[in-house]
Design goal:
Shape of chain A: globular
Radius of gyration of chain B: 14 Å
Structural class of chain B: mainly beta
Helix content of chain A: under 10%
Number of helices of chain A: 0
Mean pLDDT of chain B: 90
Structural class of chain A: mainly beta
Mean pLDDT of chain A: 93
Largest sheet of chain B: 6 strands, mixed
Number of strands of chain A: 11
Low-confidence stretches of chain A: none
Distance between the termini of chain B: 37 Å
Shape of chain B: globular
Distance between the termini of chain A: 36 Å
Oligomer: heterodimer
Radius of gyration of chain A: 13 Å
Number of strands of chain B: 11
Strand content of chain A: over 45%
Order of helices and strands of chain A: EEEEEEEEEEE
Helix content of chain B: under 10%
Strand content of chain B: over 45%
């Protein structure tokens, strides 16, 4: 079974803090994604990566950055957390062009 | 216009009803299609892939219409446990392409 693991299930951070969300997958997938999900707005793509050290902006990259130093790990970084970044963050990984995405369990981040 | 659009919902149906969801996509280069199910406060999980010829899995039937660029999901004999949000997913036709999700349609099956 594909396993996508996010480092935290729940996280509470203060405004202005630098926040790291980690995601690890064990299936040697090329593609990895970070989404945020908010009520009424659906899943929105923040960044994705199709190879080590490669990254592409998604639909809402502002306020975020990512790092993919190893194939199995894709990190999302909030440089200076703000209250409007309170959300559910979902990491996903996927094999080649026809592959289906597998999700981590999600991280519910609250910025106070 | 969004790349992937779903019926707005919510759908509230009685047990035993048949319900159908549609999802349209804008990019004709889209290659593969899926339906995911997401329960409250959980991550989305694969429900079924969608094949050109249409495919069935028990009470669930998925269809793809490439000419009109939409996919559909039909649920027959709805159960209370079918209550969830259903998301359609479209993969682009390149190895490095992204997966695009619809916003989801919420289904509530009532006794």
């Amino acid at each position: 079974d594909v396993k996508v693991t996010q480092s935290s299930r729940y996280l509470v951070k203060r405004t202005g803090e630098k926040v790291f969300l980690e995601c690890v997958q064990d299936m040697d997938h090329e593609n990895m994604f970070w989404y945020r999900q908010d009520p009424g707005l659906g899943l929105r793509l923040i960044y994705f990566s199709y190879d080590v050290k490669m990254k592409e902006k998604g639909d809402i990259p502002e306020g975020y950055s990512v790092s993919r130093e190893k194939k199995e790990r894709f990190s999302l970084i909030l440089e200076s957390a703000s209250t409007n970044q309170t959300s559910m963050y979902l990491c996903a990984s996927r094999g080649g062009s026809g592959g289906l995405p597998f999700f981590g369990q999600g991280t519910r981040l609250t910025v106070v | 216009r969004k790349e992937v659009e779903q019926d707005p919902g919510p759908f509230n149906v009685p047990e035993g009803a048949t319900v159908a969801f549609n999802c349209t996509y804008s990019n004709s280069a889209s290659q593969s299609f899926f339906w995911y199910r997401q329960d409250c406060r959980k991550e989305p999980k694969l429900l079924m892939s969608v094949y050109s010829s249409g495919n069935e899995d028990g009470r669930f039937t998925a269809q793809l219409n490439r000419a009109s660029q939409y996919i559909s999901l039909l649920i027959r004999d709805s159960k209370l446990s079918d209550s969830a949000t259903y998301l359609c997913v479209v993969n682009m036709g390149t190895n490095a392409g992204k997966s695009t999700f619809g916003d989801g349609t919420t289904l509530t099956v009532k006794p």
